[in-house]
Task: structure prediction
Amino acid sequence: MHLSRTSRLARGGLLATAVLSMLASVHPASAAAAPSAQYHSHPITDAGGRNLALNGTASLITWNTGRRLIQLTSSGFQQMGSAWSTERVGLNRSFETSFKVYLHSSKHGADGIAFLFQGEGPRALGGWGGGLGLRGIEKSVAVAFDTYQNTDDPNSNHLAVILNGNPDRHLATATPSIPLFGKPFVARISYNAEEHRLRVYVRGLYPRAVEKLMLDEDVDVAQTTGAQEGWVGFTGSTGELVSRQDVYDWTVDAPKA
Result:
C-alpha cells in the first residue's frame, strides 16, 4: 500500500475523529461500538488533518483509502512524539474519548503510549524511553498503555494513571487480560467532572470481545492540570527497543472550552 504524510502541524476546525480502518479487512468484526456520551461525537482529524498539532516523531499517515492514523513513533530508537487536538476542551467538564491502538514491530518492542489531558499547550512533548513522551509535562493527567517493564512498573503489559508528568510514580496500575503489544485494541476513557471519577476501559479487536473496566480512580483533572481548559491527545516513545505506535478511529465526546 502506498503511504503519504501530511504537514507536521494542522490547525483549526472542530474537535473530531482520527480515522483509520487499518485492520478492517483483517478483522471484519472488529469495529468499535460508538461510545454513548452526553455530547455529540466529534472527529479529531478531518480529511486534511487540519486540527492536529504534531511534535517530535509524530506524523499523520494516509492510506490509499484516504483514511488516516496518527503514528507517534516509527520503529526508530530513542524516539518521542506527541499529537494534540488544537481545539481546547473544558478540563472541568465531563467528557469521553474512544480510540483504537496498534503497537507493533517485528519483535516485542517498547515503550508505549499515553492519552493526556494537559494544560501546557499544543507543543507539549516529554522524554523518550520510559518517559513515554510525557515525562516533564507537569500540568497533566495521563493514562498510559505501557509495554515495557521499567524499575517502577508492575510488568511489561499494564495500564497506569500518571499525574504531573512523572511516569516513575503511578496513581494506579492495572494488567489487562489482552496484550497491549502486537494486537490492536480499543480503549475508552470517561471522566465524570462532578464525581472526579476517571474510568478506563479496554477491549480486544476480535469477534465477541468484551469491554472491561480496568481503572476507576478519583482524579480532579482541572485541579491537577491547574487549568479550567486545555488540550487532549497522545504521547509515545521508544528507547533501546523500537515500536510503531499507531492511534486511529479517535473520537472525543465533550463540549469545547
In short: Confidence is low (pLDDT under 50) at residues 1-40. The chain is about 0% helix and 40% strand.
